[in-house]
């Protein structure tokens, strides 16, 4: 990326952010799905800083073993500590670890960026939860030794859920409300999420997709709901609401749909407008949560089994385009060219697939 790097440095000139690094990432044959997501996560500044801090505090631990978390932290630290402002890095160690741990990513087939993001975040959570539980267990054992065996009893203790810094960034809560149409009793069940997958329609927007996500569905005929109060199956109304919005809202647009008649998946190139500023209304706890877009993973291609992934990133009020090894500056107005196609058959196959929004009242901003 020599020429491209110097071109980017010239384009930014005196405005090149102090201490920031813009590095392309080498593609190992079919790893664009991985590269595009890694760039989006790297420019999720709270996540990046907490990951590097975690690594700095833990890398010298005698029994520290290599895992996806340490490989990702090592890669982010490599990028952030480069002497050069721009260049290319090969995420060899991270990709090797990914393929070693999950056979899905071993083949040279086209992979899904959302599946990878989902797997990665859940894997990081699992590693951190295991470490937190192990540390707590060690602490309890040392307390027992210090205070005598009878001072602490584990009987009747329930396992408290561990809240990691990954949860603090990405986790939100949904509430699933079901209203019995006979007795009007409302049953609510909470569930957590790290990203929201939204159904899409032609010529729609993120706001309309979110409204559809929270729309009321009637359960009748074979889908009746068992009401505990009525002690029988009843017709009911069901809806899903966002109870607690996350600090980082990740939205996955369901662009790949299984078509029964074709017997295969088809890419939906629909035009879905995603705003630079998003207001989440109709949430349970917060009147209006406001978000700012800072990254977009884009799928390039006409079908689900082939194509390419690139990412758009906002950093210090500049928009950048990352395509594996290449990084270039783009105008903010260019973001709308990735909304999708208003007609089914279009030469434009570059469509926004995963959107990353940071909450504006989170107390810190990715773009400052």
Automatic annotation (TrEMBL):
One Pfam family here: UCH
Enzyme Commission number, as recorded: 3.4.19.12
One function term, GO molecular function aspect: cysteine-type deubiquitinase activity
Domain of life: Eukaryota
UniProtKB keywords: Hydrolase, Lipoprotein, Myristate, Nucleus, Protease, Ubl conjugation pathway
Keyword Magnesium: no
GO cellular component term of the entry, any: nucleus
Domain USP: 23-360
Known catalytic reactions: Thiol-dependent hydrolysis of ester, thioester, amide, peptide and isopeptide bonds formed by the C-terminal Gly of ubiquitin (a 76-residue protein attached to proteins as an intracellular targeting signal)
InterPro entries: Papain-like_cys_pep_sf, Peptidase_C19, Peptidase_C19_UCH, USP, USP_CS
Location(s), subcellular: Nucleus
One Gene Ontology term from the biological process aspect of the record: proteolysis
Biological function: Recognizes and hydrolyzes the peptide bond at the C-terminal Gly of ubiquitin. Involved in the processing of poly-ubiquitin precursors as well as that of ubiquitinated proteins. Required for the correct development of pollen.
Protein family membership: Belongs to the peptidase C19 family.
UniProt-recorded name of the protein: ubiquitinyl hydrolase 1
Upper lineage: Eukaryota, Viridiplantae, Streptophyta, Embryophyta, Tracheophyta
């Amino acid at each position: 990326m020599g020429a491209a790097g110097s071109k980017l440095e010239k384009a930014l000139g005196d405005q090149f952010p102090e201490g920031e690094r813009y590095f392309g990432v080498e593609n190992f044959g079919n790893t664009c799905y991985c590269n595009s997501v890694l760039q989006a996560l790297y420019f999720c500044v709270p996540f990046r800083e907490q990951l590097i801090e975690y690594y700095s505090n833990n890398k010298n631990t005698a029994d520290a073993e290599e895992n996806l978390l340490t490989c990702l932290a090592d890669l982010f630290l490599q990028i952030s500590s480069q002497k050069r402002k721009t260049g290319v890095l090969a995420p060899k160690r991270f990709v090797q670890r990914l393929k070693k741990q999950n056979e899905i990513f071993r083949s040279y087939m086209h992979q899904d960026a959302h599946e990878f993001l989902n797997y990665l975040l859940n894997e990081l959570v699992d590693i951190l939860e295991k470490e937190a539980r192990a540390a707590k267990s060690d602490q309890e054992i040392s307390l027992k030794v210090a205070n005598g065996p009878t001072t602490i009893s584990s009987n009747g203790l329930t396992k408290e859920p561990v809240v990691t810094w990954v949860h603090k960034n990405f986790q939100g809560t949904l509430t699933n409300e079901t209203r019995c149409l006979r007795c009007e009793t409302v049953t609510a069940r909470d569930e957590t999420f790290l990203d929201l997958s939204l159904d899409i329609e032609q010529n729609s927007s993120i706001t309309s997709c979110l409204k559809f996500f929270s729309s009321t569905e009637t359960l009748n005929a074979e889908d009746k709901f068992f009401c505990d109060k009525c002690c029988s199956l009843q017709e009911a109304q069901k809806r899903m609401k966002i109870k607690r919005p996350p600090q980082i809202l990740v939205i996955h647009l369901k662009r790949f749909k299984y078509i029964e008649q074709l017997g295969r998946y088809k890419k939906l190139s629909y035009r879905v407008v995603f705003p630079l500023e998003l207001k989440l209304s109709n949430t349970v706890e917060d009147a209006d949560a406001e978000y700012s877009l800072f990254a977009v993973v884009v799928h390039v291609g006409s079908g689900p089994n082939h194509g390419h992934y690139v990412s758009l990133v906002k950093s210090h009020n500049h928009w950048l385009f990352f395509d594996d090894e290449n990084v270039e500056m783009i105008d903010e107005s260019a973001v709308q060219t990735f909304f999708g196609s208003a007609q089914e058959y279009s030469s434009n196959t570059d469509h926004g697939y995963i959107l990353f929004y940071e909450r504006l009242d989170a107390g810190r901003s990715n773009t400052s």
